[in-house]
Amino acid sequence: MNILNAYQADTVESLQEALQNIKKWEDDQSDLWFWEKIGRIPFAILDKLTPKLVQKYIGIALDELGSYIQTGGQYLIAQDKILQKYAPYLFLQSSSEVTIEKISDVPLSLMNQVAKDNKDNHTNFATVQGATTGFGGIFTLAIDIPLLLGTSLKVLQEMAITYGYDPRKKEERIFIVKCLQFSNSDFVGKKSILKELTETATEQEAISRLQGWREVILSYRDNYGWKKLFQMVPVLGMIFGAIINRYTIQDVAEAGEMLYQKRRVLAKLQELEQKQEEIEIQPELFEDEKKGKNNENL
Questions:
Q1: Distance of alpha carbon 236 from the chain centroid
Q2: CA nearest 150: which of 43, 76, 254, 238?
Q3: Is residue 154 included in any domain, yes or no?
Q4: What is the pLDDT of residues 98-137, one digit of tens each?
Q5: Is residue 135 part of a domain?
Q6: Which domain holds residue 159?
Q7: Does some domain include residue 290?
């Protein structure tokens, strides 16, 4: 199948339908699962008894997340893997010819397919990773904290690129951490973050709103309550490790996918509206532009 035929150009109708689906997803966001809340209780009670090794890795993860917000740190990813997926549609030979700016012209349906592939790949990887670190007891559990953070930041950066946004920019790193917060928040927290993301803010204002970003890592720690309880039983440790990591990354990826998709849909709608206004004001110029593009394709 020709890739041009597989992914049709965006229309106002198709974009509005996508926006409605995103709105429905936002409205469907619920509170934490009951078992997730129960899983947080052990750490709330036993916080002072948490082994120093785990506390050490939590501290490292906190520092690294702060470093990521400011500079990108070690978590910045290579873009070629994602850019290469768009090369055939853009009639380019390699990822080196594809830029993030060019991705904005790609149909939303293709972006959504790339996002789905990324989500599935990372979810499967997290499942295996969780089973492995859940098997090894407290020592591998401590290692799992920065590993899970790294995977979360990687999948969110890939979602940014997928929808045509550059994760190397500080404003996008702030947005990525907000996605991370969203996926780890309860119902009230999610609604608050959605409201924040619809408001325009300066970089300084956005950073000030991230004063609670440390809660992201603390919520990660809380998610290990079940694994801590069952770490003495290796088989159960593997099962719970696989389940918790799988759903953690699945939720993170879905949040990034939907929130970045919403930004791109709104941007595309604005572009189409502007183009329609130009057509109405100067139809002859648009016809000349259209004829020029047709001649280029001949």
A1: 29
A2: 76
A3: yes
A4: 889 899 989 999 999 999 999 999 999 888 888 877 676 6
A5: yes
A6: 37-272
A7: no
Task: Write out the DSSP string of 110-165.
Answer: HHHHHHHHHHHHHHHHHHHHHHHHHHSTHHHHHHHHHHHHHHHHHHHHHHHHHTT-
Q: Indicate the pLDDT class of residue 241, thresholds 50, 70 and 90.
A: confident
| Contact indicator for 74, 64 with CB cutoff of 8 Å | yes
Q: What is the CA radius of gyration of the chain?
A: 22
User: Residues 168, 83: contact at Cβ < 8 Å?
Assistant: no
> CA dist 133 to 95, 130, 150, 245, Å?
34, 5, 15, 10
Of residues 196 and 140, the one with the higher pLDDT is: 196
What contacts 270, CB < 8 A, 6 or more positions away?
A: none
CA distance 150 to 68: 10
- What value does the mean pLDDT take over residues 31-58? 53
Domains contained in the chain, number: 1
Is 206 or 84 the better-scoring residue by pLDDT?
Answer: 84
User: Looking at 30-34, 86-90, 264-268, which range is the least confident one?
Assistant: 30-34
Residue type at 186 in one-letter notation? D
Q: Dihedral sign, CA of 110, 111, 114, 116?
A: negative
- Residue 210 and residue 229: Cα distance in Å, rounded? 31
Q: Is residue 201 part of a domain?
A: yes
Q: Cα separations (Å) of 71 from 1, 66, 164, 168, 176?
A: 42, 9, 20, 8, 13
Tell me the pLDDT tens digit for each residue of 243-288. Answer: 888 888 999 999 999 999 999 999 999 999 888 777 767 665 556 5
Contacts (Cβ under 8 Å, ≥6 apart) of 127: 242, 245, 246
**Residue that is written with structure tokens 């098997």 in the block:** 135
